Amino acid sequence: MLFSTVYTAAALFVAQAAAHGAVTSYVIDGVTYPGYTGFSPASSPKTIQRQWPDYNPTLTITDRKVMCNGGTSADLSAKVAAGGKIKALWSQWTHEQGPVMVWMYKCAGDFASCDGSGKKWFKVSLHEKN
């Protein structure tokens, strides 16, 4: 019985940890910006968001995909005033999701040179399932 309970709990944890979805647009100080909406950069409009290569979850913290999901640099940028409001709109969830954290990276220069390394990450929000 104990094995069954532990196995079920572990299976539920893995299902939640492997959950994934996508930010498909942003509202920054009342202005809406499109996010990245697909796997093919050629078919997507220019956006303020780094593109991602797939919807596969990142399973370890040492995976390079932890930084920007292994995608390419964003074409555009959006200025956010100190204290400004940022809202990320998620979609493409095809299943129950677990906790979701949204982090952003401060890139003060040319986006092509931003690789997500260093201590410029800051947490924007945390949504925990009730």
TrEMBL record:
<keyword id="KW-0624">Polysaccharide degradation</keyword>
<dbReference type="GO" id="GO:0030245">
    <property type="term" value="P:cellulose catabolic process"/>
</dbReference>
<dbReference type="GO" id="GO:0030248">
    <property type="term" value="F:cellulose binding"/>
</dbReference>
<feature type="signal peptide">
    <location>
        <begin position="1"/>
        <end position="21"/>
    </location>
</feature>
<keyword id="KW-0964">Secreted</keyword>
<dbReference type="InterPro" id="IPR049892">
    <property type="entry name" value="AA9"/>
</dbReference>
<feature type="domain" description="Auxiliary Activity family 9 catalytic">
    <location>
        <begin position="20"/>
        <end position="125"/>
    </location>
</feature>
<keyword id="KW-0136">Cellulose degradation</keyword>
<dbReference type="GO" id="GO:0005576">
    <property type="term" value="C:extracellular region"/>
</dbReference>
<dbReference type="Pfam" id="PF03443">
    <property type="entry name" value="AA9"/>
</dbReference>
<keyword id="KW-0119">Carbohydrate metabolism</keyword>
<comment type="function">
    <text>Lytic polysaccharide monooxygenase (LMPO) that depolymerizes crystalline and amorphous polysaccharides via the oxidation of scissile alpha- or beta-(1-4)-glycosidic bonds, yielding C1 and/or C4 oxidation products. Catalysis by LPMOs requires the reduction of the active-site copper from Cu(II) to Cu(I) by a reducing agent and H(2)O(2) or O(2) as a cosubstrate.</text>
</comment>
<protein>
    <recommendedName>
        <fullName>AA9 family lytic polysaccharide monooxygenase</fullName>
        <ecNumber>1.14.99.56</ecNumber>
    </recommendedName>
</protein>
<keyword id="KW-0732">Signal</keyword>
<dbReference type="InterPro" id="IPR005103">
    <property type="entry name" value="AA9_LPMO"/>
</dbReference>
<dbReference type="GO" id="GO:0008810">
    <property type="term" value="F:cellulase activity"/>
</dbReference>
<keyword id="KW-1015">Disulfide bond</keyword>
